[in-house]
Design goal:
The chain is α+β, with helices and mostly antiparallel strands and 467 residues long. It folds into 2 domains: 137 residues, no CATH class; 257 residues, no CATH class. The chain is built from 13 helices and 11 strands. The chain has a 5-stranded antiparallel beta sheet, with helices on both faces. Strands 1, 2, 3 and 11 form a 4-stranded antiparallel beta sheet that branches. Strand 1 and strand 2 form a beta hairpin. Helix 4 runs antiparallel to helix 9 and helix 6 crosses helix 8. The radius of gyration is 26 Å and the shape is globular. It starts with a helix and ends with a helix. This is Replication initiator protein RepSA. It comes from Streptomyces bikiniensis.
C-alpha cells in the first residue's frame, strides 16, 4: 500500500494517516464499512446500537453496538444527490431516478405501472428560458456570432458576447421563478387538452389524466431548463387506457399552446436595477419528441430518455462554474475564483435579495437563483424514490435475518421480531487516510459496474443476432 500511495502523489499528512489506518486493529472492518457505503465521500458517523427481541419472551435474539467498531462509530452513506459532493451516493440517486422514469415508460408492476403503459401516448418535452442577451455558442455548421468556430470544450461557450448589455437581473429572476412557470404550464396544459377535446375541464379529468416526470438542467449560460416525460393515462391513472381522443398529436399541440400562454409578472425594483415590471415566459426553443417503445431503431427510445433524465438528476449549477454551497457575500466569490459569467449571475442574486426578500435570492445565489426541486413527478407517474430506497432496506434486512438465522416474517407471521435502536450523531466525513481508501473503493466499484455493463451489452447484442 505504501508504494501505491506514494505513486499516487499523496501529501505527507495523508500518507502518514493512511499508514496509521492500515496498521490499526480494525482495518479490515473499516474497509468493510467503507465498501458498504459504496465509497461515500462524506459518510455520517453514528454511535449506539440495536437489539432484536422476541416480543413474547423479551429474549435478546441479537445485539449490536458500535463500541467494537473502528473509532467506535458506524459509517453510513450521506445520501447526497450531487455528484460534485459525493459521486458514490449520486450514482445511487441517478440509478433510482433511472428506474423511476423507466417504470413510467416501459411499465413495471412492482413499481406501480402495468406493461400496457407502453401503448399510452407520451412525449419528451424540453422547455427552455428566453434570451437575456447573445452568448457564444455552436450554431450547427456556422461560426458563432463572434466569428469563431468554438470547440465543444471552449470555456467561452455560454458566456455573453457583451457582458455589459447582458440582462443578469432578468436571468436570475427567471431562474428564481422557473418552478412557478412550470406550475402554470401544468395548469394551462390541462385546460388546452380540454379545449382540444371539446370537453369541459371536469369531463376531461373524468376521462383522462396527464402524468409527468421531469428534471432540471442548467445550460452553459446558467439558465435552467426542464426535460419532462409527459404521458396520457386513463381516468384512474396508468392502470387504465386513455380515451380514444387522447392522441399523441393532441398532446403535442396542447403542450405548445400551454407553453405559449404562461406568464409570470415580477414587479419593478428601480433602486436595484429592475426599472419596470418583468414579464417572464418560456423561451421559443420548445422541443417535443414522441417516445418510441422497444428501441426499434428510433433515436429517442425509452431507455435513452430514462438515462438522460437520470444523468442530470445529480447535477446542479456547479456545472456552470458556480459553487455547490451557499455563498453569503461578493468577496467570497473572488476568493473562490468563480468565473466571470457565473460570478456576475451570483452577484445579481445578492444585489436583488433586498428588493425581493421573499424570493430568498441570497440563499440561492449558488444556484443562480433557482430554488425548485431538480427532479419531480406527478403522483401517478410511477413509483417513488422513497419506495425504491425501502426495497433496498428490506433486502438488507432480509440478508441480516438470513445471516442470524431468524425466520422470514412473510413466511412466518407469528415469528415477529421487535427492533429496539438507539443512535446518536457523532459527526461526518473521513480522516485523510480514510478518504483515500474510500476513493479507491469507489473507483473499484465503478470499474466493476462498467465491466458488468459491457458484458451485459455484449450478451444482448449476441442474443439479437441469434434472433
Amino acid at each position: 500500500m505504501t508504494d501505491s500511495a506514494t505513486a499516487a502523489g499523496l501529501d505527507p499528512a495523508t500518507l502518514s494517516d493512511l499508514l496509521r489506518v492500515a496498521g490499526s486493529p480494525g482495518f479490515d472492518r473499516l474497509t468493510e464499512q467503507l465498501r458498504r457505503t459504496g465509497g461515500c465521500t462524506n459518510p455520517i458517523r453514528l454511535t449506539g446500537g440495536t437489539k432484536l427481541l422476541d416480543p413474547a419472551t423479551k429474549t435478546v435474539l441479537h445485539a449490536y453496538t458500535t463500541d467494537a467498531e473502528p473509532g467506535g462509530v458506524l459509517r453510513v452513506a450521506c445520501g447526497n444527490r450531487r455528484a460534485s459532493r459525493c459521486p458514490a451516493c449520486a450514482w445511487t440517486y441517478a440509478g433510482d431516478t433511472y428506474h423511476l422514469i423507466r417504470a413510467g415508460l416501459t411499465g413495471d408492476p412492482d413499481k406501480g405501472t402495468p406493461e400496457t403503459i407502453r401503448d399510452h401516448p407520451r412525449v419528451f418535452a424540453t422547455l427552455t428560458a428566453p434570451s437575456f442577451g447573445p452568448v457564444h455558442n455552436r450554431p450547427g455548421t456556422r461560426p458563432c456570432r463572434c466569428g469563431t468556430r468554438h470547440p465543444e470544450d471552449a470555456p467561452e461557450l455560454g458566456t455573453p458576447l457583451d457582458p455589459g448589455s447582458y440582462d443578469y437581473a432578468a436571468a436570475v429572476l427567471w431562474n428564481n421563478h422557473a418552478s412557478d412557470l412550470w406550475r402554470y404550464f401544468t395548469i394551462y396544459l390541462r385546460r388546452e387538452i380540454a379545449a382540444r377535446a371539446g370537453l369541459t375541464q371536469k369531463a376531461t379529468r373524468e376521462q383522462s389524466r396527464v402524468s409527468f416526470g421531469k428534471v432540471a438542467e442548467y445550460q452553459k449560460r446558467g439558465a435552467v431548463h426542464f426535460h419532462a416525460v409527459i404521458r396520457f393515462d386513463g381516468p384512474e391513472g396508468p392502470d387504465t387506457p386513455p380515451p380514444a381522443w387522447a392522441t399523441l398529436d393532441l398532446l403535442t399541440d396542447a403542450i405548445r399552446a400551454a407553453a405559449t400562454r404562461v406568464r409570470v409578472t415580477v414587479p419593478a425594483a428601480p433602486a436595484h436595477g429592475v426599472g419596470q415590471d418583468l414579464t417572464l415566459a418560456w423561451g421559443t426553443q420548445l422541443d417535443i419528441q414522441p417516445i418510441k417503445a422497444f428501441g426499434q431503431g428510433e433515436d429517442l427510445t425509452e431507455q435513452a430518455v430514462a438515462s438522460y433524465v437520470a444523468k442530470y438528476a445529480t447535477k446542479a449549477a456547479e456545472t456552470t462554474g458556480t459553487t455547490d454551497h451557499p455563498v453569503g457575500n461578493k468577496e467570497a466569490l473572488i476568493l473562490l475564483d468563480v468565473p466571470e459569467h457565473p460570478r456576475r449571475l451570483m452577484e445579481a442574486c445578492l444585489d436583488l435579495h433586498a428588493a425581493y426578500p421573499d424570493r430568498r435570492l441570497r440563499d440561492w445565489a449558488h444556484m443562480l437563483g433557482f430554488r425548485g426541486h431538480f427532479s419531480t413527478k406527478s403522483r401517478s407517474y410511477s413509483t417513488t424514490l422513497g419506495a425504491l430506497r425501502q426495497v433496498r432496506a428490506d433486502y438488507r434486512a432480509a440478508q441480516q435475518r438470513t445471516a442470524l438465522g431468524l425466520p422470514d416474517p412473510d413466511e412466518h407471521p407469528e415469528a415477529t421480531v421487535l427492533t429496539v435502536a438507539h443512535w446518536t450523531y457523532a459527526g461526518h466525513g473521513h480522516t485523510p487516510g480514510e478518504s483515500w481508501l474510500a476513493a479507491n473503493i469507489r473507483r473499484d466499484i465503478q470499474h466493476n459496474r462498467e465491466h458488468a455493463r459491457e458484458i451485459r451489452a455484449q450478451l444482448e447484442a449476441s442474443t439479437e443476432q441469434e434472433w
